[in-house]
Specification:
globular, 161 residues, 6 helices, homohexamer, Rossmann fold, alpha/beta
Chain lengths: 161, 161, 161, 161, 161, 161
């Protein structure tokens, strides 16, 4: 069984993430969206909020599971018997960092692959931090995040202030 | 009327910034240098110092206005009826980030362009943070910042200590 | 008067080119689309075909002129009293090459600027050579080139065989 | 059934290619190695030689098929009912080109994904053209190409002279 | 006499650093490993720990000296009568930053060169921060850091918690 | 004795090359400028012209030798008992290619290092091909090539027509 893991901080989940998730889940048998909790303090949304956001957006995708992990991604992937880690690639800076991580993870556990999908052209300019900046100043983020969490993001950002 | 906006944190303004400003103001009718105040706390110089520095350096340029803004740049640009945002490009990492911002701003307000000028060869190695590092340890920054603010920078950096 | 020059081989003109042309012509008073004839032999379409394609696509844009040039772009720009050369930027490899050319042209004639616009997200994956590959094997290029030249491209490519 | 296509000119196949092939074939049900014949004239090895080399190197891999194609890769992939195209990524220049191709292919046929694997660290400096340069001047290519075709490469290169 | 300086934060020293040190010391007469103390607070290991680690790893290299510096690297290099600064290059992001620093340092003191060595292929995926992440979660860093400091790193990281 | 090799096609030698040569010769005991003759046919200047140009520009540099080589650079370097190959780095595309060559050469002969110097800021926009384009159309190349070969370049380019 091909188990793929799609890791990230999802702070919050964007249309770019959802695009990768939708495409990745068709390429494997089971896709685990793994939200990292290591750097919880630096995140804008609490871990529960981030998880709730992702779950709302993926609840109709039958082979998708939302989970969390602490510690090294590669250890988590190994425990889950994952065959691959899947990541979206947007830009050169992504590429450099992801290349380094992929090579390092390969060294730590040779059995687990890292596969990359190019982020769809419509979302290549998106990032979680850009969305937070826009929402924070009451800019419009419709189309940048899934509709089901659109209002929640403004709400939670305000509450956090 | 072609109104261009040259945004930045200008912490402090460098010869590289001045080079872009001088060239940009010839390409439009009115150039607004817009100092962002969002991240005031992380800046080395206070907002007033940064504004004073830019004003000193541009006081003889008749179609240049120094202003400040809070919130989203694109909203500020729209309010000012700007036709374009102008940025200097130095390096790959600049390029990636600016590309993402330009595409995002285009999505937020299709009427406003982002135009890029290549930073002149003599200043392509300059950055505000490099200048602060040099000045902090009593290195020489003559030629890296405009002469009129040269002494002020050392003075203000010392005071801040 | 702000005269801008948009140079290229336009072999053939793509939706990406048209996007840059439409945006650039609003930023200046007069836009000259300058088709380079230096490397005629390597081009797929003849010089006349390339010029005809661009003219068809821009005939309703009142401040746009289609011209040709031989020799150094900077000399041509100077003769035309251009204030700036405008180029679309897509990717890192574009960026590197264009940066080098901009710096070199600045050295050859300091009065003429080079300004860059980011190619719109919808056309960032387009290139003239990709279009030719697709058309050559009867792939569909609708949406990749302006409609008015769509059929011509297939026709001319076939004739050339 | 997950059918993946690994396209290339394989002129000749290198240890880097074999590394990607070995890893890719575990991630899908059936892997087609598709040698492009469009630019036959520019290739150093004839099409038959290139195919023979790949077949020799993959004859023990049960879910791997070696095939050839002419025309657009995406059309070939569609005809083969492929679910994905798989490519190895080495460097920035690879990345830029492959990103453009992936986005373009996605536009031409939305159902077919492009997935990327990072070339293993031991082969990231390898390219077919580097190998040909070394072999041409009697340098040693052991470890750079699969052992089973090592001698053939010198032989064929000499014959071609 | 050719005195080279190999600067860094060495937090902690990795096999990648040691590779550069070993190669650099053969290219000069005397190599000074210069640990910067400016950003002490952000470092994971104390300055004494970092120095001790480097000393342990280089104690058998006769023309290597371990030293520390505060302030501008170029001033330190000048005081030490260094003829060159030597740095390892791994990736694009390294390259951009190091290019800027090299040009700036050249401007500050024209007599001192900056030379670059490419990090060996086996260590190109290594960074001090990656090692700390792995060790922190009890992952295995054997082969990533010199054996003589392997246990110390786990020990010190635990103590620091 | 530290013997360094500075390889290239030098078609023709530029101020950028001379800058690297001047700086490299101070870092070693003996510097060999090695002009590659493999791709003679594609060069604009004949091998004799290229060699003559370099010799004219370096005749006052006592530890510099001008030589030619055919075949693999690494074999030539080994035969000359070189300890290092020295290259100038300008841009990302340079970097990628040179990184690949350095790693490959290291694999072919572990004893020979490749060291990189950043091309001086004043010459970072220069290339042999840019110079030829300018000279071909009677543009001015003063300051881009050494004065002693300035007239020769125009002369030889004309003759070749």
């Amino acid at each position: 069984m091909k188990i793929w893991i799609c890791p990230g901080s999802f702070d919050p989940v964007t249309m770019g993430h959802i695009d990768i998730i939708k495409r990745a889940r068709k390429m494997c048998d089971h896709l685990i969206i793994a939200i990292g909790v290591n750097d919880e303090k630096k995140a804008t949304f609490t871990f529960d909020e981030r998880k709730e956001f992702v779950e709302k957006c993926t609840k109709d995708m039958d082979n998708v599971e939302v989970d969390t992990f602490e510690g090294l991604l590669i250890n988590y992937a190994s425990k889950k018997k994952a065959t691959a880690i899947v990541k979206g690639l947007r830009a050169i800076s992504d590429f450099e960092y992801e290349l380094q991580m992929a090579l390092l993870n390969k060294k730590l556990d040779e059995k687990i692959e890292t596969v990359f999908l190019m982020t769809s052209i419509n979302y290549s300019h998106l990032s979680s931090s850009a969305i937070k900046s826009i929402a924070k100043y009451d800019g419009e983020i419709k189309g940048l995040v899934p509709d089901v969490i659109h209002d929640d993001i403004y709400l939670k950002l305000k509450k956090g202030k």
